[in-house]
Amino acid sequence: MQLRNRQDFWSGVMFIAIGLGAAWQATSYQMGTAARMGPGYFPFALGLVLALLGAIVLLGSLSKKATETHVEKFDWRITFLVIGSVVLYALILKLLGVYISVFVLVIVSSLASHEFNLKVAIGNGIFLVVFSYLAFIKGLGLIFPLWPSFLGMN
Questions:
Q1: Is 0.70 topped by the overall pTM?
Q2: 108 - beta bridge partners?
Q3: Beta carbons of 31 and 38 less than 8 angstroms apart
């Protein structure tokens, strides 16, 4: 057997390592039963599923026929935009509220895409604001500031 796809091989190794690490860490919590799950049950199962998917990806990268794959260089700009947008969201949530913060998060993280389109980003932002409201505020009843605190509309 030869390595057909290096990206898939190393991705599979990474998924297996992270999945097994998460499952191992979850064993330090109470497991419970399938009917009454403890705090370690879901992370343990999720870690095992991730490791299984990693094994599938790894095995798929092995073949008798070898092909050449090219790995592009790491793009730090994209990393900083995505992580920076999440940090920015955390910093402005209390000040600007959920609606504006989610919208800003989507727009800033959309700048990381090579196919950035402002209309699509605005549409995604509006959709996620509505989804966040319906899922977290109405559906789960979570309490977040919805509008900027200086407007006094909460």
A1: no
A2: none
A3: yes
Predicted pLDDT of residue 142: 81
Would you mind telling me the total number of residues written for the chain in this entry? 154
pLDDT, tens digit (0-9, with 9 covering 90-100), for 112-149: 988 889 999 999 999 999 999 998 888 888 888 788 87
Could you tell me the two tokens for 53?
């998917």
Show the CA angle centred on residue 29, arms to residues 24 and 33, nearest 5°.
100
Measured CA to CA in angstroms, residue 91 lies from 14, 81, 95, 124 at distances of: 31, 15, 8, 21
Q: Give 63's DSSP letter.
A: E
Long-range CB contact pairs, 78-84, < 8 A, 24+: 78/112, 81/108, 81/109, 81/111, 81/112, 82/109, 82/112, 84/108
Residue-level pLDDT at 26: 92
The answer to whether the beta carbons of residues 39 and 30 sit under 8 Å apart is yes
Please compute the mean of the pLDDT values over residues 68-89 and round it to a whole number: 85
Per-domain boundaries in the chain: 6-62, 76-137
Rounded Cα distance between 125 and 15, Å, is 30
Min mean pLDDT across 66-70, 101-105, 121-125 is at: 66-70
